Amino acid sequence: MELAVLKQSGEDTGRTVNLPEDIFGIEPNDHAIYLDVKQFLANRRQGTHKSKERNEVAGSTKKIKKQKGTGGARAGSLKSPLFRGGGRVFGPKPRDYSFKLNKKLKQLARKSAFTYKAKDNSVVVLEDFNFEAPKTKSYLELLSNLSLADKKTLLLLPENNKNVVLSSRNLPKARVMVVNDVNTYELLNADSLVLCEGSVSKLETLLSK
């Protein structure tokens, strides 16, 4: 797949770049995508939820009333789950939600996500750039020049660029990542994928292992 390389102003540089077919032109695997996104969301869960059971609730263990003759059900303690303020039955406990996935499956999921972006014509290639200072206005102007100001975007940098990252941080629909950190969830969550020219070769090296 061949795409034109654009300037920051949105104009064509006259150069083109070939997106690797083994990354942007494979047969997408939806189940691999599902598993990778599921793992990503599971790994973000804190798992600190907790409720008290009857042995953890503060209160008297004295028998409330005599066993028989009251006409009601027997009750042995105020800590019973049947009473207000009592313990909870089978309540949540702290746990780790993370699980393991094979590297090849995660790689297939990312390639599938890239392929979907290419099929939707949602990939833009931008020449390598830098900002003199971190300014949100500069990044917003860049998105406007690319006609992406009102869309959720993911910009992939070949290497960390502090000024670009800080410039995008206050924009809720803008996301900036280094190629090595890209994941399936962020790819699918974005409406448009913006690739710096230097990111293409880095992607090929990363996903062709």
UniProtKB/TrEMBL annotation:
Protein's UniProt keywords contain Ribonucleoprotein: yes
SUPFAM superfamilies: Ribosomal protein L4
GO cellular component, one term: ribonucleoprotein complex
Region (Disordered), start-end ranges: 45-77
InterPro entries per the UniProt record, alphabetical: Ribosomal_uL4, Ribosomal_uL4-like, Ribosomal_uL4_dom_sf
Lineage top rank: taxon: Bacteria
Keyword set includes rRNA-binding: yes
Keyword tags: Ribonucleoprotein, Ribosomal protein, RNA-binding, rRNA-binding
Coiled coil: none
GO biological process: translation
GO molecular function terms listed in the Swiss-Prot or TrEMBL record: rRNA binding; structural constituent of ribosome
Role, per record: Forms part of the polypeptide exit tunnel.
Assembly information from the UniProt record: Part of the 50S ribosomal subunit.
Family: Belongs to the universal ribosomal protein uL4 family.
Protein name as catalogued: Large ribosomal subunit protein uL4
Organism: Lunatimonas lonarensis
Classification lineage: Bacteria, Pseudomonadati, Bacteroidota, Cytophagia, Cytophagales
Gene, per the UniProt record: rplD
